[in-house]
Amino acid sequence: MFTGIITGVGRIAAVHDLGSSLQHGKRLTIDAPAGYLDDVGLGDSIALNGACMTVTRLDAPKGQFTIEISAESLDKTAGLAEPGAINLEKALRAHDRLGGHIVAGHVDGIGTVTRFEQVGESWEMRVLAPRALGKYLAYKGSITINGVSLTVNSIADSAQGCEASINLISHTVQNTALGSLKAGSQVNLEIDLIARYVERMLTAEPQLSKASA
User: Fold this and answer.
1) CA dist 68 to 43, 166, 187, Å?
2) CA 39, 43, 44, 49 torsion-angle sign
3) Contacts of 57 (CB under 8 A, 6+ apart)
4) Domain ranges of the chain
5) How many other C-beta atoms lie within 10 A of the C-beta of residue 176?
6) CA 204 → CA 41, 133, 210, distances in Å?
7) What are the helix (H) ranges across the chain?
8) One CATH from 3.40.50.2300, 2.40.30.20, 1.20.120.80, 3.40.630.30 for 8-90
9) Average pLDDT value for residue range 35-63
10) CB 129 within 8 A of CB 163
11) Strand order in the sheet with 57-59
């Protein structure tokens, strides 16, 4: 479980195939900021651009760790198959502050940045989400984009999908990998966990157990 508050910006330093077919995944070696791995152990969870991954190899003195990502996960995410900057967040501890919102680290879909421009002292980012995710997006609601907990300022539905407008303060642009995005970039999206449960409660048909029948 995560909060969507990025705790470090790392870099995918190396990508190695785990096999020769499309059914094989990849092994990623990630460079982390100095001291970032001091409290990390093998098997710990770290979110990479919002996707929860398991540390399979650790070299804390060098500031590197390794994860293995399946072909299925590669197919359902963006930005995890080639070298480049990446947002990092360690798993939430029970006594940590919940500074963003509850994030599972499970990517629900891939969005496309349609606008990324500075407006005054802030930046406006617009992301076109798949139509299937549009019903989960709401004005002033939460969304996770590449692992960052963000607030939706406006939404616009169309035949192509649902475009969400996000305001980014300078601190967010400077301290996450979102600053490297541009129009056309693909991003990982995770909808609000509460919205997922609300939909289930509203659409599921009530079923009586045999004991109560």
Assistant:
1) 11, 31, 20
2) positive
3) 42, 65, 66
4) 8-90, 109-200
5) 25
6) 40, 18, 18
7) 71-75, 131-134, 170-175, 193-203
8) 2.40.30.20
9) 96
10) yes
11) 51-54, 45-48, 84-90, 8-17, 26-31, 64-69, 57-59
What token pair was written down for 17?
Answer: 């195939």
- Summarize pLDDT for 128-162 with one digit per residue, the tens: 999 999 999 999 999 999 999 999 999 999 999 99
109-200 and 8-90 share a CATH fold: yes
3-state secondary structure 81-123: CCCEEEEEEECCCCCCCCCCCCECCCCCEEEEEEEEEEECCEE
How far is CA 213 from its chain centroid? 43
Share of the chain above pLDDT 90, in %: 87
Q: What is the CATH number of domain 109-200?
A: 2.40.30.20
Give pLDDT tens digits for 60-81.
999 999 999 999 999 999 999 9
112 phi and psi angles, rounded to 5 deg: -125, 130
Query: What is the reported pTM?
Result: 0.92
Residue of 61, 69, 101 whose CA lies nearest to 86: 69
